[in-house]
Amino acid sequence: MHPTPVGRPISTATAIATAVLMVGLSPSLGDAQAVNLTFTADSAVYAPSAEWYQQQWNSDGPRILRAMEAASGLRFGNLEIRVIVYLGPSYTGAGDSLPMHLNVRYPFGMTLVHELGHRLNGQIRDRPAEVDEHRLLYLWLYDAWVALYGRHFADAAVAAEKGWASQGFVFIASDWDWALAMTPEQRARRLGELRSRD
């Protein structure tokens, strides 16, 4: 099991973790390139979580990559990514100089797929003004979560992200509403249009 995070966990995180245990692993979705992630903690108190994250990635990383590629229609290249596990806002990072950071309070599959998704989306550079970075991500992130962990997980993850408005990320809720107002087919079609612009 995931080591218990330090501090009071959010209720949606508990629901998501339960969903993962209930759903288990789904069938493979195709081929993916090598994306090597190395997890380290920013302090000793989070070392057990970093070790658990590394174990999860080593066992489930290829399946996660395949699901992300299937949902987005994009392909990962070969990547080496350092990931810091800590208590603070998750962010994607860039290259070796700025590692990815994951907030220990949130479930592994929620934050990791979100932050890796930003790196995958970097391939789509020609974007209309109304499609910001998170709108682009949300065109396929929900469907990737469903494929990986089930609809209950995906719904709980969306609710958790909408809660980030209290931390100043007020645009997250409206971006999710924009994406989820579309059917999966409409999201896929919109995403295909954006991919074809590059």
Brief write-up:
By secondary structure, this protein is mostly helical. The protein has helices at 11-23, 47-72, 108-121, 133-138, 141-149, 151-162, 171-180, 184-195; strands spanning 35-41, 79-86, 100-103.
Q: What does this entry look like structurally?
A:
The chain is mainly alpha-helical. It has a 3-stranded parallel β-sheet with strand order 1-2-3, with helices on one face. The radius of gyration is 16 Å and the shape is globular. The chain contains 8 helices and 3 strands, in the order H-E-H-E-E-H-H-H-H-H-H. Helix 1 (11-23) runs antiparallel to helix 6, helix 2 (47-72) packs across helix 3 (108-121) and helix 2 packs across helix 5 (141-149). The protein has one domain (11-195).
Total beta-strand segments: 3
The residue-averaged pLDDT reads: 84
Report the end-to-end length measured between terminal Cα atoms. Answer: 42 Å
Helicity level: 40-55%
The count of domains is 1
